[in-house]
Specification:
By secondary structure, the protein is an alpha+beta fold. It is built from 4 helices and 6 strands. The strands form 2 sheets. It has a 4-stranded antiparallel beta sheet, covered by helices on one side. Strands 1-4 form a two-stranded antiparallel sheet. Strand 5 and strand 6 form a beta hairpin.
Length: 149
């Protein structure tokens, strides 16, 4: 029996694969459609507007640290800063969310408005989150790291 299986295997390997006749036509239609419409570029990140770069504060020595500020941003259990991006609508709406804020949230918004336009900063009063319109995750992590959070 094993010998008959070994003899049958080369025949299976050399046989031609099954080709469906409708598949090449469907692929041709897809290619034709993309030639007419064209490829639509999908933006990776939305345009962010910065008044000043917070990463410059990493080397500054005259900024306030978390000991003197009236608010505190607690790190997660794994040691990460609670700054997250929220991408919705296929990338057409990008927001940055700051969570785990304790203390004076209004003062945090005032400090952030030196770097980010004030009309892009919103406070969610129900849970105390700060929401920014645009992608500011990296810049906010630099902002909080410079203040030793």
């Amino acid at each position: 029996m094993l010998q008959t299986l070994r003899n049958a295997l080369p025949a299976i390997r050399t046989s031609q694969p099954f080709v469906c006749g409708a598949l090449p036509a469907a692929l041709e239609q897809r290619r034709y459609r993309s030639r007419i419409i064209g490829q639509v570029p999908v933006p990776y990140k939305t345009k962010t507007i910065l008044l000043k770069d917070p990463s410059e504060d990493l080397t500054a020595t005259d900024i306030e640290t978390k000991e003197t500020l009236p608010y505190n941003v607690k790190r997660t259990m794994n040691g990460w800063l609670p700054v997250y991006d929220d991408i919705r609508g296929g990338g057409s709406r990008v927001q940055t969310i700051i969570r785990r804020i304790e203390g004076d949230v209004q003062r945090l918004v005032k400090d952030l408005s030196a770097y980010i336009p004030h009309e892009r900063i919103h406070i969610k009063t129900t849970n105390g989150h700060v929401v920014l319109d645009g992608y500011y995750v990296d810049k906010l992590r630099d902002f909080f790291t410079a203040r030793k959070f």
